[in-house]
Amino acid sequence: MQSEFKISEISKVTGGDYVSFVIVEHGGSRPAKISRTAIKILAAADTYDETRVIRDNAEKIRDAADRWRKANPGALVVDLKDDCF
Fold it and tell me: Is 68 helix (H, G, I), strand (E, B) or coil?
């Protein structure tokens, strides 16, 4: 059985080319961000809603976040870029 995984607090109000959110898993939370280029890759369309793409691709984001955390165990923020997908 897989652990509970949620994406919450999606914020498109950022100072750069990313969308921030919070990963809630294993009874804790961790800040994360995903590049808008990665969102476009996940959307596979010319027009899309960023929040919807993030929610609809939660499983892919979970897998990418797991790989990213294993490669960057000391990082405080999960930083997902286009090469994660």
Answer: helix
Q: Quick one: how far is CA 84 from the chain centroid?
A: 10
Please tell me the predicted confidence (pLDDT) of residue 44: 95
* Total-model pTM: 0.88
Going along the chain from its start, the domains and CATH numbers come out as 5-84 (3.30.160.140)
Long-range contacts of 3-10 (CB under 8 A, 24+ apart): 5/58, 5/62, 6/58, 7/54, 7/55, 7/58, 7/61, 10/50, 10/51, 10/54, 10/55
Q: Output the pLDDT for position 16.
A: 84
